[in-house]
Amino acid sequence: RGEAALLQARSDPGLPTESLFDYLYNTANALLIAKQTERARDMLLEAVSMDFETAENPTRLIALHANLATVFSNQGDLESALNHDRQAIQLVEQIYPPIHAERARKLNNLSTTLSAMGRHEEAENASREALAIYEQIYADSPHPRVASAHNNLAMTLRRAGNLAGAEPHMEQAMQMAAIHFGEDDPRYTIAVGNLGDLKRRLQKLDEAEVLLNQNLALRRAIFGDQHISVAVGMGLLCSLRLDQARYEEALGLCQDTLSMFEALEYQGARGWIAITTRQARALSGLGEQALARTTFQQAFELVEQAGDNAGTSRAELETAWETFIASNPQASE
């Protein structure tokens, strides 16, 4: 229906530009729901390039830039995502006061993109400001947005290497998610996975085991067996199996995750790099050093193709490669 309406709108020479903008925006949102991301992106870009006066209703452009940032982030184009995140915030600051939920939401979005790019100090500043805004707005009663902001700050601190600082925020986020959303909600599932991965990084492996198995089971129950969320859950469990030196299981999880990426035509560069890196580590742990070296090379090729969009997965690969070379000096030749 949206496409039919847009087609008719394009054929009307007297249609105001503002109306065509709305047709493009609404049809693009319908395409996003239908998982037709590239077509939706093209319509959103067409809409954002239109030349008309937006001062009377800038919220349309704010939503448009926010959607484009999400689309580009999901496609692994972090530089473009950052550009649209910043434009959304600039527009928000033109019409909302500093202490406003809309500004906090856009700061959280900005923080997530900056963190994925490895720009940790900027990401932490944005996350802390968003949490402070929400805590001031909802000081009298806890709110799901506060839980989300705690989770976002925890993830930002974790990516920056501040694991001890992240832990209390992550625990609070999971507890609040259980209260506000229930344990059958994807937001609770994500919180469980995030906390489990943090416990693994803190070498609290018994706690991580319980949380990451629960996380994968919840993802499968909610999304089914073939979904990118399930692939994420398998990737998290794979990292735990590597830390436990359970290399055969880790390798199987990596292979299953990569197969799912292919089946789902997943385009996120960071995911491909991270899982390929873990596959190389599993092969090395099994004594397959030549195959591990080849797999590491494949991961480096993915990083080169991704450029800046490799984000924090570049650091994971470089650290794993250094460990591999230290144990296998001949592999660097």
Main attributes of the structure:
mainly alpha, 16 helices
Describe the structure.
By secondary structure, this protein is mainly alpha-helical. It contains 16 helices and no strands. It has helices at residues 2-10, 17-33, 37-48, 59-74, 78-95, 101-116, 120-137, 144-159, 163-181, 186-201, 205-223, 228-243, 247-264, 269-285, 289-306, 313-327. It is globular.
> What's the total helix number?
16
DSSP, total strands: 0
Major sheet summary line: none
Give the helices and strands as they follow along the chain. Answer: HHHHHHHHHHHHHHHH
Rg from Cα: 22 Å
- Coarse shape: globular
Q: List the uncertain runs.
A: none
Mean pLDDT: 90
| Fraction of residues in helix | over 70%
Question: Which strand-content bin applies to the residues?
Answer: under 5%
Q: How far is the N terminus from the C terminus? A: 60 Å
Q: Output the structural class.
A: mainly alpha
What's the helix and strand layout?
Layout: H1 2-10, H2 17-33, H3 37-48, H4 59-74, H5 78-95, H6 101-116, H7 120-137, H8 144-159, H9 163-181, H10 186-201, H11 205-223, H12 228-243, H13 247-264, H14 269-285, H15 289-306, H16 313-327
